[in-house]
Design goal:
single chain, Alpha-Beta Plaits, about 400 residues, Rhopdopsin 7-helix transmembrane proteins, about 10% strand, alpha+beta, 5-stranded mixed β-sheet, two-stranded antiparallel ribbon
């Protein structure tokens, strides 16, 4: 396959992938990374079309602008991958500023050669430097990332970017030699080493397009899976997702010998909130409460909505004492919480019951039954308080279990 055929194939591929990525980004607007990658593909398409007009347009339109667009496309690629992996903006403007400065310097070197005949071998290297940096930064991000769902595509992307770095560095080396640099500038694709290294970069670019779609598809699938297990109002787990999550955590607690605590929470006098402020006000309180609870939780913890104003918090690795301390902090936060709704401030309180998994035969149903009983005690004691399983009660439970096991063995 010669360069012209490869160029046409790449243009058609870029067009198809641009349409596909923009379509996916509009299907789920929450996948911000897809928009960055779609933008990178669109810019790459424009760049490739301009490069194909070499000889029919001025050199600044077929060389300078495409090379500058190439830098912007790689920046968009980096930002897209950054959203998928880190889900955060840039910490400072240092990187964009440095990239913009290198683009200005490259444009100055190129125009000085075209307008004044002042040629330098460092022009191509200046253009390639930000691209090499962005590829390296993206590789580092993929190597350090911990998301299991992105492990395979991240490894593929890192491998492709490493190949791109090698090929582009090779071209930088060629541009710095008198023979190849002059031949590339004068006869373009007549230099085999220059041409074949470019064909290699084209192949890598095409493979990266597939990775773009793969990242977007994985993220969209994850969104659908999460939505299926979420309470539509508050974003917490629903009952179905809770049961799946608990089954995993109980099994892990048994296998690893880790404690597992549970907190049952109920907003006090919630009917009064609905009657006073309407269901819209009640919904605002529920959403604010879940957000408050999530701020107190660790990454492995989970909160689920099990009723109108009833919630369950699952705490792997915590015993009842630790969970009680967390529940008390949540209770104090709720006391201070004020939810603004239609110009009015809504306040409320919460009651909680806390227990932990007691031994091998303590199932989830038993745990929640005890936590519900403790929650009822908190309600009966005047609300706005936390009631935890007493150590003596825990010991009695374990002793009863042991007696039951002994009777079963004797029988």
């Amino acid at each position: 396959m010669d360069y012209t055929t490869s160029h046409i194939f790449l243009v058609l591929s870029l067009g198809l992938f641009t349409v596909a990525l923009f379509s996916l980004s509009f299907v789920d607007r929450m996948v911000v990374g897809a928009r960055w990658l779609a933008g990178a593909t669109l810019i790459d398409l424009v760049k490739t079309v301009l490069q194909g007009m070499d000889g029919r347009l001025p050199r600044f339109a077929t060389v300078l602008i495409p090379n500058e667009l190439n830098i912007v496309a790689f920046f968009c690629m980096y930002m897209g991958f950054r959203w998928f992996i880190k889900r955060q903006r840039l910490n400072s403007w240092a990187m964009p500023a440095a990239i913009a400065l290198s683009m200005v310097v490259y444009a100055g070197l190129f125009l000085s050669a075209v307008l004044f005949g002042v040629r330098t071998r460092w022009s191509f290297a200046m253009m390639a430097a930000p691209v090499l940096f962005l590829c390296g930064a993206a590789m580092k991000m993929f190597i350090e990332q911990q998301e299991p769902r992105f492990r395979v595509p991240g490894t593929i992307a890192a491998a492709l970017l490493s190949v791109h770095i090698v090929l582009l560095s090779y071209r930088v080396g060629l541009s710095l030699t008198v023979e190849h640099g002059a031949r590339a500038r004068s006869t373009g694709w007549a230099d085999p080493q220059w041409m074949y290294s470019m064909l290699g970069i084209m192949v890598v670019g095409y493979c990266l397009l597939l990775v773009y779609v793969l990242f977007t598809a994985i993220e969209m699938y994850s969104h659908v899976a999460r939505s299926a297990g979420q309470d539509a109002l508050t974003g917490s787990m629903n009952r179905r997702a809770l049961l799946k999550h608990v089954a995993v955590e109980v099994e892990r607690s048994e296998r690893m010998g880790r404690p597992l605590a549970v907190i049952c929470l109920d907003l006090d006098h919630f009917k009064r909130v609905n009657d006073t402020y309407g269901h819209g006000g009640g919904d605002a309180v529920l959403c604010a409460f879940v957000s408050l609870v999530k701020e107190r939780l660790r990454g492995e913890d989970a909160v689920a909505r099990t009723g109108g104003e009833e919630f369950v918090v699952i705490l792997p690795g915590m015993n009842a004492a630790m969970a009680s301390s967390l529940a008390e902090r949540v209770r104090l936060d709720v006391v201070q919480m004020r939810v603004e709704y239609e110009g009015r401030l809504i306040s409320t309180t919460v009651s909680a019951g806390v227990t932990e998994r007691l031994g091998r035969d303590d199932c989830w149903a038993s745990m929640t039954k005890r936590a519900d009983r403790l929650l009822y005690q908190a309600k009966s004691s005047g609300r706005n308080c936390v009631v935890a399983e007493e150590p003596a009660a825990m010991l009695r439970f374990v002793a009863a279990r042991e007696c039951a096991d002994q009777r079963a063995t004797v029988g």
